[in-house]
Amino acid sequence: MPGVDEKDREILRILRKEGRITLTELGKRVNLSPASVKNRVEKLEKLGAIRGYSAVVNPTFLGEYVSVFLELKLAIDDHTVDPILRKVAGMENVEAVYRRSGERQILVKAHFQDTDEVKAFAGKLKRLFGRNLERVEATLVIDTFKESWIDLERKTR
Question: Is there a contact between 107 and 70 (Cβ–Cβ < 8 Å)?
């Protein structure tokens, strides 16, 4: 990525695992002054390398016991669907919205209290997309064995 050097990647690796680390401690770990680290972090934020800061919360502690992947097959083009997908992404239970290749172009990951909420959410999607929604298929997550973010330490080509 242009404008990002190995020191920046080192900062990103540490922030990815320890988002609450202080600039002083981060500086010690990467052998830079807190001011230099602050400048680099601000640069990474402006570049979009750091999208934001948040806690990774277990949905069950929010009373959301059902995790679901919803696959949507649409009868509209990408340009038309973008504003609708932004609305879907802003819905309360939605964790992620992906556009993908294949017959069912959209994948939505969401969390709900129960299957009745899943059905109600599917109904909202049908109303939102109207006749342009050809099919909704929900897959319930039975158990999660691994859920993590990208490994920034893997070797790049």
Answer: yes
